[in-house]
């Protein structure tokens, strides 16, 4: 097994703060136990009503702009004193998005010896007939290879029930239920799926092949160690539909062929093709990205050199 996905990226690296937050009891090594831990300290910003909790406006706006696990853990440390291994009341949780659930689980899996990585794609289990833009964690298990896990779906200990109506194990999400960006692109390009059924359910105007194109690149970047925010864009991601050339389409086709195969049981290491593709200036993560923030508008964000491949 290649050590690439055991090694923390600058985004998933928890830093020294993790030990202080864990407390006297060590972190569990079982992936399901780690996912339950994540579920107990994070709150998706669209879930607050299910907890009967009013999230302060600044948390809705600012928490999910945290790019790095170190920032997420810092905020958790400031919100409460309970060990990370104990579920928290909503007021003491980090208020984020699906990407934050995936990022923290990936970070903890790597920290406890399980290879893991983030995947960008679409969940079919939020709204019938719709592919909702979503991020999950993929972890390596002996005998199975790469398995998809969605910590956001794990039963919420403080409620004694799950928040989502699913009929599968959230630690083994079927690949037809979560479609990685590359497979979504191929399905749309080959006429097997309607691009308008791929989007963001909470923002109906965000949908279609342009979004899928962006998610193909975001998934590639995550496989290469840059776990971007869901609304970040660069290179070919930022092109309007009428600006996309045949060469661009062929490039995304190539990326999709590589990344849609990247979750198979035989894929035990980061393929050289990922590194090669990320060397293309249309795909490479630059020093500055365009961030289409939900609450702060569009802005250009500078990334540190350490945060790029």
Word description of this protein:
Pfam families: Transglut_core (PF01841). Residues 1-23 are annotated as: Disordered. InterPro entries: Papain-like_cys_pep_sf, Transglutaminase-like. Residues 1-11 have a biased composition (Polar residues). It comes from Streptomyces alboflavus. Strand 3 (116-123) and strand 4 form a beta hairpin. The strands form three sheets. Strands 3, 4, 5, 6, 7 and 8 form a six-stranded mixed beta sheet that branches. The chain has a three-stranded antiparallel beta sheet with strand order 9-10-11, with no helix packed on it. The protein has 309 residues and is α+β, with helices and mostly antiparallel strands. It is globular. Helix content is 30%, strand content 18%. The protein has one domain. Residues 305-309 have low confidence and may be disordered.
Provide keyphrases for this structure.
Papain-like_cys_pep_sf, 6-stranded mixed β-sheet, about 300 residues, globular, Transglutaminase-like domain-containing protein, 3-stranded antiparallel β-sheet, Transglutaminase-like, alpha+beta
How would the blueprint of this fold be written?
Layout: H1 17-22, H2 31-41, E1 42-44, H3 57-62, H4 69-79, E2 94-96, H5 98-111, E3 116-123, E4 131-141, E5 145-149, E6 178-180, H6 181-189, E7 198-200, E8 203-207, H7 209-223, E9 232-233, H8 246-259, H9 272-278, E10 288-293, E11 297-302
Parallel strand pairs: 1-2, 4-7
Antiparallel strand pairs: 3-4, 3-6, 4-5, 7-8, 9-10, 10-11
Helix pairs in contact: 2-5, 6-7, 6-8, 7-8
Region (Disordered): 1-23
Pfam families: Transglut_core (PF01841)
Biased composition (Polar residues): 1-11
């Amino acid at each position: 097994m290649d050590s690439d996905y055991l090694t923390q990226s600058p985004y998933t690296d928890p830093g020294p703060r993790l030990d202080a937050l864990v407390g006297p009891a060590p972190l569990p090594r079982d992936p399901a136990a780690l996912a339950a831990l994540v579920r107990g300290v994070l709150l998706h910003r669209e879930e607050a009503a299910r907890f009967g909790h009013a999230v302060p406006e600044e948390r809705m706006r600012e928490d999910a702009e945290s790019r790095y696990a170190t920032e997420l853990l810092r905020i958790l440390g400031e919100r409460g004193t309970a060990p990370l291994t104990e579920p928290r009341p909503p007021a003491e949780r980090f208020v984020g998005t699906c990407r934050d659930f995936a990022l923290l689980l990936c970070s903890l899996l790597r920290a406890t010896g399980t290879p893991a990585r983030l995947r960008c794609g679409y969940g079919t289990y939020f709204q019938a007939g719709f592919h909702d833009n979503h991020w999950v964690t993929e972890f390596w298990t002996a005998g199975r290879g790469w398995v998809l896990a969605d910590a956001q779906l794990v039963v919420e200990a403080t409620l004694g029930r799950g928040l989502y109506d699913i009929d599968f194990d959230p630690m083994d999400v079927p690949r037809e239920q979560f479609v990685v960006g590359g497979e979504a692109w191929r399905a749309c390009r080959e006429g097997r799926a309607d691009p308008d059924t791929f989007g963001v359910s909470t923002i109906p105007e965000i949908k279609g092949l342009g979004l899928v194109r962006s998610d193909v690149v975001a998934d590639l970047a995550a496989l290469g160690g840059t776990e971007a925010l869901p609304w970040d864009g660069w290179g070919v991601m930022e092109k309007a539909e009428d600006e996309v050339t045949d060469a661009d389409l062929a490039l995304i086709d190539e990326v999709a062929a590589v990344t849609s195969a990247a979750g198979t049981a035989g894929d035990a290491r980061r393929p050289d093709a990922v590194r090669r593709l990320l060397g293309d200036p249309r795909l490479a993560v630059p020093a500055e990205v365009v961030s289409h923030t939900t609450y702060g508008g569009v802005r250009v964000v500078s990334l540190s050199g350490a945060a790029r491949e």
